Amino acid sequence: MNEYFYEVFENIPRQGPGLKESTQQAFNFIKSYLPSRPEILDIGCGKGVQTIELAKISHAKITAIDNHQYFLDCLEKAAQKEGLAETISCINADMSELPFGGELFNVIWSEGAVFIIGMKEGLKQWKKFLKRDGFLVLTDLVWLREDRPAELTQHWKKECLTVLNIEQTLEAARQEGYRLIDHFTLPRKGWIEEFISYLEEIITLLRAKYATIKEAQETFNSIEFENEIVKKYLDYCGYEFFIWKN
Q1: Whole-model pTM?
Q2: How many C-beta atoms surround the C-beta of residue 219 within 10 A?
Q3: pLDDT value of position 90
Q4: Mean pLDDT (whole number) for 121-135
Q5: Can you give the CATH number for the domain in which 97 is found?
């Protein structure tokens, strides 16, 4: 990832697909089981749109981690603006090397970030940080159909992205000892209107800013190709919210 890639994602609200209503829906599955002041770890928080929403609806103490400091700076500013500075703590850390002891959190939350280490690794590595009867709540890209378009399959293979279907994901969680609470598919709005549309807008502006820089234009081409192929095959794939109990 180069500076032009980061400039794109630094200038959009969300760094991956998501929707406030879906964050609320997922939290509603677990809220009655949580203590009055739960400890939540938000992994790969980005600029923290979902972190702020979680803080508002959970009354939790939230630790938010990301490995890009600019995103964390944005989240800290947003937390201060919302009066949540005492609620949200930001840490620059790698999700595969979390700087914590075991069994610290009532909830581990991660929207659109587990792909970085892979769902199976996330399920395995993060389990030790959950308290007994804690919850793991994730979103990840999944196949929604078995008649998979060759163009999309080949693209993800080229990008070294492993995409499971829903049942494969559920089975991976069962093998790690998680108990399924529920799962649901993120509405299209969370991908198109809340994410891709912002990418398209900022890329148009940055293309003009870096009109003479080949590396920048190639970066923008790559992101736009990803956007177009996703929109073309959105009936075949989607982001799934998974809610598991430890």
Answers
A1: 0.96
A2: 22
A3: 98
A4: 97
A5: 3.40.50.150
